[in-house]
Design the sequence.
């Protein structure tokens, strides 16, 4: 047992033995678990299905064809196809149970563990309700309340910390809520075009609908992320972020079913506390969102740029000087409304890409000039492309390569502009130290300050407003490596990498959706000064802690035990 795996299955394995009072199977302090006497019979599930008009789905693990198990026989052809496509988001996002983060799938039914490898339901939800309406959600909540069953809310399964999965749970599955409507919105704080989208709408669907109307809306760099789920509720950075702010800054209204089963509208004018909490306080804990209405902005000519070089033939000192120069150039770039993604390790660097809504190619080249002259001076060969597109949609579709999943474990830190302005060498030193120890970087260069976000009212971690470098650090995932090595990587993130990043950003924070799940200070780091108020609002709309997600507001009410069983923490038991 190593490290400080505070919230992981592994530490809890040892806790389990310290807390024998939790060992009884139908403990009233725990959620009812499959196999317990309290678990509903097949007849009860079937009756529930009937009340839902047949929308109940029983989980069959996605990778079942890769194993001989109670779900069927190994099928070489199907298994090969699954293995080849396992790191593509589209393999998972139509499933009612699969998740993209392999650590949290816990090898329950992993396509790479061989025919004899286990295929069980494990950390996946047991059933899902493919909700089509508020009444479906209310029925699911009533059923789980009556039967003391754990709830998970599931949209696409993108969450890096597996927050849309849960052992022994019923998933409320929002994927089929695909309506999109464009309207003219008029309220005290915003007058203009708006898009109302169902909670199942994904980036690519919203982008296409907006494009048809000469508009743009904010979404992730990965176009398959759902917009109204974990993304916008957790903050949401976008290629349009330096021009309009975070995704949560765009929200005008949420349509939500709370834990009491009430169908509510939350805006600045109505249920404004719930509106405030949902806009930035994180997914999966305040209620089940059915739809979200956001600002839609007029489309505009958009430039895209990329630039890359490797460390071949240059010293590491020179390589890191170049990265330092990129960071020096960033404030002027992001203040022009450009968002710039970079990826680097010890051997290569790429701006991949930068997006300039309303910025000409000429201006983008000018802004890159300080960096390229430094590269020339250092004798670094690079490739560069800057191109102007007639609209955002074409820029996005041309400049972004598909993003893989299941290839890494994640942690992150919001590094403020002041760190780069006052002590850039310390920033470089910290990144270099991590890279030399096997970490790879993915950094979002952005300006989502209050002046960019405008007139907003939400629970975005204030650290975002001063951020220049939304720093994501990763360790590689290897499906065939010993599990202990993946655990060691997770611990390295917590014990080494994140403390190094905190040293260069004292008092800043962490982006909820790109965070180390073992952060012992997650309340402060993820939510900042907003945590206490977020918890009060949670208790108002969800008094029984019906909703739980790892590291979500209020999550320490529960403890997830090694087998996944969710039990009240000792102080609440
Ligand atoms: C490949 C990839 C690229 C990414 N790119 C970006 C990016 O560019 N910018 C960015 O900011 N983030 C990005 N992310 C992170 C992303 O924002 C999070 O993974 C986010 O949690 C995904 O939300 P989801 O609803 O699609 O996923 P899920 O995994 O389905 O859900 C995530 C969380 O939201 C909750 N939730 C989902 N739907 C609802 C609902 N209707 N009501 C209440 N709670 C709900 C779930 O319970 C869970 O806690 C990326 C992630 C991946 C894997
Ligand atoms: C629910 O009913 C539908 C339609 O009858 C059926 O297709 C589905 O398999 C049922 N779900 C479960 C879990 O039995
Ligand atoms: C909370 O639990 C109590 C006691 O079991 C129950 O009476 C009440 O209906 C529950 N409320 C909600 C909102 O789940
Ligand atoms: C961010 O951009 C806005 C708009 O261009 C600008 O007013 C602000 O000074 C910029 N920088 C910071 C740190 O806020
Ligand atoms: C830059 O973008 C172009 C156009 O999409 C692409 O062909 C090229 O591979 C990109 N280069 C890098 C280094 O990402
Ligand atoms: C920069 O940061 C380093 C490491 O934290 C520190 O030792 C040094 O004093 C700092 N320099 C300045 C000018 O703040
Ligand atoms: C993954 O782990 C296996 C087993 O330890 C090893 O043979 C393989 O080389 C690793 N793959 C990579 C890409 O590191
Ligand atoms: C994860 O897998 C391990 C065995 O590899 C098992 O002991 C543990 O109970 C599983 N955890 C959950 C939450 O299913």
Sequence:
């Amino acid at each position: 047992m190593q490290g400080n795996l505070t919230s992981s299955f592994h530490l809890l394995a040892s806790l389990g033995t310290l807390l024998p009072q939790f060992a009884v199977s139908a403990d009233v302090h725990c959620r009812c678990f499959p196999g317990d006497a309290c678990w509903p019979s097949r007849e009860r599930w079937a009756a529930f299905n009937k009340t839902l008009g047949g929308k109940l789905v029983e989980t069959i693990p996605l990778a079942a064809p890769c194993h001989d198990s109670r779900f069927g026989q190994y099928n070489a052809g199907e298994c090969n196809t699954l293995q080849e496509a396992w790191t593509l988001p589209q393999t998972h996002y139509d499933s009612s149970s699969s998740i993209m983060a392999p650590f949290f799938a816990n090898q329950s039914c992993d396509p790479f563990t061989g025919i004899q490898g286990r295929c069980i339901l494990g950390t996946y939800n047991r059933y899902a309700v493919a909700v089509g309406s508020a009444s479906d959600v209310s029925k699911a909540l009533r059923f789980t309340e009556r039967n003391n069953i754990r709830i998970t809310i599931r949209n696409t399964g993108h969450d890096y910390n597996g927050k849309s999965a849960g052992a022994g749970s019923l998933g409320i599955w929002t994927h089929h809520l695909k309506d999109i409507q464009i309207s003219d919105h008029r309220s005290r704080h915003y007058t203009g075009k708006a898009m109302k989208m169902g909670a199942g709408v994904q980036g690519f669907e919203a982008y296409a609908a907006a494009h048809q109307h000469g508009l743009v809306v904010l979404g992730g760099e990965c176009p398959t992320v759902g917009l109204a789920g974990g993304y916008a509720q957790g903050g949401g950075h976008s290629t349009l972020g330096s021009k309009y702010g975070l995704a949560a800054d765009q929200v005008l209204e949420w349509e939500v079913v709370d834990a009491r089963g009430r169908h509510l509208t939350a805006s600045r004018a109505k249920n404004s506390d719930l509106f405030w909490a949902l806009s930035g306080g994180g997914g999966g804990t305040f209620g089940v969102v059915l739809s979200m209405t956001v600002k839609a902005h007029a489309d505009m000519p958009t430039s895209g740029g990329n630039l890359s070089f490797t460390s071949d033939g240059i010293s590491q000192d020179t390589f890191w000087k170049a990265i330092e120069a990129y960071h020096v150039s960033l404030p002027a770039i992001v203040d022009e409304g450009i968002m710039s993604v970079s990826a680097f390790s010890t051997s290569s660097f790429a701006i991949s890409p930068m997006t300039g809504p309303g910025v000409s190619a000429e201006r983008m080249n000018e802004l890159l000039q300080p960096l390229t002259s430094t590269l020339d001076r250092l004798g670094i060969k690079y490739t560069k492309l800057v191109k102007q597109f007639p609209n955002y949609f074409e820029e996005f579709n041309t400049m972004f390569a598909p993003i893989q999943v299941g290839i890494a474990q994640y942690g992150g830190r919001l590094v403020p502009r002041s760190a780069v302005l006052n002590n850039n060498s310390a920033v470089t030193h910290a990144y270099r130290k991590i890279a030399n120890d096997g970490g790879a970087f993915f950094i979002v260069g952005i300006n989502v300050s209050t002046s960019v976000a405008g007139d907003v009212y939400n629970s975005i971690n204030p650290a975002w407003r001063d951020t220049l470098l939304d720093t994501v650090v990763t360790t590689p995932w290897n499906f065939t490596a010993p599990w202990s090595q993946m655990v060691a990587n997770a611990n390295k993130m917590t014990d080494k990498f994140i403390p190094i990043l905190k040293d260069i950003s004292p008092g800043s924070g962490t982006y909820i959706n790109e965070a180390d799940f073992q952060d012992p200070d997650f309340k402060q780091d993820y939510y900042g000064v907003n945590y206490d108020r977020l918890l009060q609002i949670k208790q108002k709309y969800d008094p029984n802690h019906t909703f739980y997600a790892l590291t979500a507001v209020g999550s320490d009410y529960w403890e997830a035990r090694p087998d996944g069983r969710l039990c009240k923490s000792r102080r609440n038991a």
User: Anything to note?
Assistant: The CA atoms of residues 212 and 393 lie 10 Å apart. DSSP finds 17 helices and 20 strands in the chain. The pocket of 2-acetamido-2-deoxy-beta-D-glucopyranose (ligand 2) is lined by residues 45-46, 49, 54, 56, 58 (CB under 6 Å). Residues 1-26 have pLDDT under 50 and may be disordered.
